[in-house]
Amino acid sequence: MHKLVSAVFALSIALSVAGCASKKQSPLDKMDAAFDDVRAEVQSVVTDPERAAQADELIHQLQQTYTSTTKSIQLRKDRLRELDEDYDASRTDMEEQLELILTDLQANQQTVLKISDEMFSVLNDEERAEIGKARSKALNAAVAAMDAI
Amino acid sequence: MLVTIITILFLTGGASAGLLYDFGSMKKQVKTYVADEERKDAALDVVKEFKARAKAENKKLKALKKQVEGSLNESPAADEQLTYLGEELINSTRAYYADMLDLRFKIREQFTREEWTAAYAAGADQPD
Known about the structure:
Chain A has helices at residues 17-20, 27-45, 49-85, 91-122, 125-147. Chain A is mainly alpha-helical. Chain A starts with 16 loop residues before the first helix and ends with a helix. By secondary structure, chain B is mostly helical. Chain B contains five helices and no strands. Chain B has helices spanning 2-12, 23-33, 37-71, 79-108, 113-125. The two termini of chain B are 37 Å apart. Mean pLDDT of chain B is 75; it is low at 1-10 and 12-21. The chains are: A mainly alpha, B mainly alpha. At the A-B interface, helix 3, helix 4 and helix 5 of A face helix 1, helix 2, helix 4 and helix 5 of B.
């Protein structure tokens, strides 16, 4: 597998996903692991089974949202890489792919905000604090994984 | 806290991928594959522009992240601020992408078709 060595060209940055796929643990795998840790923590902190199940479902939805967005952006970046490699690629075609990435991100933002609203109503202050402390390490790993994409 | 951190993740993840240039490789490939000295110098100047623009964007993203961390309390009332910051991120990234495209076409002008193809092929053959 190849790294983003073709970084000669500006947009190669956005195309670095292909290189990441060769690592032992992909960014998506790391993100999944981080979300799984958060879900496990919720199960241990939230003692009410009904609310624990609700919180678990919401975190699952977040996980799916990020996974779906990441996969979609990876496809856009793969296409961008092809265009970038093409000496004759048009600016319009490249702009289109970049705009699609932004559209993916905007949709992701809206979904995350909606889920965060629901999460607020499910967890109490104490639970939020406890989960936040315990899982900060795992979530930092998730941030790092996202940044690696 | 949980949702806030995840929200920060969504604000900073993905779009910031546009900052991950390997400027060392970029510079090396220009030096290796652009045969003409005048074009080579011009291309290296563009590499510097890339680097400066990415650095500025990185700084902006870090400031945005701090804003998110400092202003949110994971309440529904924070949604308006989050929405605003999310739009800021999208707008900033859109401008950044446009500038990167400008530079991409600017540096391409310094390569011949053969040089461009050779540089890409060399990149693809390089192992991790």
